[in-house]
Every structure is written in C-alpha cells, then in structure tokens.
C-alpha cells in the first residue's frame, strides 16, 4: 500500500467546479435557498429548529458520502451538497441565536475564529488553500469543513448586519453586493486569487441570505412578501436548470474530446 493510500489521500480528479459566472450564480442561489428553505421547514412546515437541523444534517451526511465516493466532480452531487450545507449552516446559527440566546456579535466572532482555525490547519497540513487542488480525500475534508464554516459565518454576519445593526434587507443586500464587487475589483487589479475567492465565497452567503429575506419576508418586516415557499421553489428551479445545463454541456464536451 502506498503512503498516500495509507493516509487516505490517494489522488483524484479535482472535485470542485471551475470558478465561472455560472458557479457564482448557483452559489448565490443556493445560499438564498438555504435561508428561505430553512425558514420554511422550521416555521411554516412546523418542524422547528431542532427537527429541521436533525433532518437536514442526515441528508447532508448522505450527500457528503456520495460526494466523497465520487472520483471526479459530478455537478448534481456537488451542488446538492452545497444546498444542504447552506441549510445546515443556517440552522447552526439559528439554533445558537433562537434556542441558546447567543448574540449575533458573539456567533459572528466565534465563526470567524473557527473559520480562521480551519484555514490555518488546512494550510499548515497541505501548504495550499486553492480549490484547484482538491485532489485528495483529506483536502476535500478540509474544503467541506471550510464551506460549512463560511455558511454559518455568513448567516451570522448577514443577520448581524440586517437585524442587529439595522441595515434592513434592501440596504443589506446592496452593501454585501458592493463588498463582493470590491473583491472582484481587487482580483482584477492583480490581487491574489485564493484570498479573493474565499472572501467572495464568504460574502455571497450574507448576500444570498439578505436577498432571500428581502424576497420572502412580509412587507411589514421590509420584505417583498413573496413567501418562503415560492422563493425557495423559484430559486431551486433555476439551480436545477443550471446544473442540468452544465452537466449536459460537460458530457457533450467529453464526448467531443473522446471522438477526436
């Protein structure tokens, strides 16, 4: 048995998609579904925070098992896992805030610290944080741990901005969109790709959450009153359509490449 196999780090194809415009669109849509979907299940279906957390965690673990078993990037498995991580990340923050009474200031600080620790350990072990190098099981474990922390942090930071600091859903959406635009400008001006990616990845979570609340919450609370079920279904439909398209396009490109 080779050393890499013994460590559970045998080489795979990169398990993360290329970072394109479609990647960011699906990412933002998935964060919105995480916000509105969690609210719909916990409040409107009546599962409550605890049951929603339990059910979604089980589904997430099942999706992760498929993701880890895959030997390459498979769009529907990857994005299903992202959507479920989004819901679970939202529920972690909601559980701390609503059930345990932890302030959004404290949870935002705690998740920021936890994320920095994951980054530090990941870099200390692998000497890279690049998503272009998710080619071992160990790196994939670091990757999904980081993604979960970004969703939990993004939920806490988004709620902190829109609720505790009083920005509201409209201004909160605008502020986070401007911050993402600033990161994009930083990258365009020659900033390093890895920190730019992770900054944008973190910021898309509160952007998606603010957008989801803006669309779904009642007008009395500053939203547009579309409701969580219609917002969730609309965004899920777009996600499914985009994932189907990139899956078809990827298969077509592979077949063309093999033909030549």
Give a written overview of the molecule:
The protein is an all-alpha fold and 260 residues long. The protein has one domain (18-249). Helix content is 78%, strand content 0%. It is built from nine helices and no strands. It has helices spanning 3-6, 21-44, 48-69, 75-99, 104-126, 137-164, 168-188, 193-216, 228-259. The chain starts with a helix and ends with a helix. The relative contact order is 0.15. The model is unreliable at 1-9 and 255-260 (pLDDT under 50).
Helix-strand string: HHHHHHHHH
> How many separate domains?
1
Task: Tell me the major beta sheet.
Answer: none
Poorly predicted segments: 1-9, 255-260
Mean pLDDT across residues? 87
Indicate the overall shape: globular
Count all strands and give the number: 0
Ordered list of secondary-structure elements with their pairings:
Elements: H1 3-6, H2 21-44, H3 48-69, H4 75-99, H5 104-126, H6 137-164, H7 168-188, H8 193-216, H9 228-259
Keywords, please?
single chain; mainly alpha; 9 helices; disordered N terminus
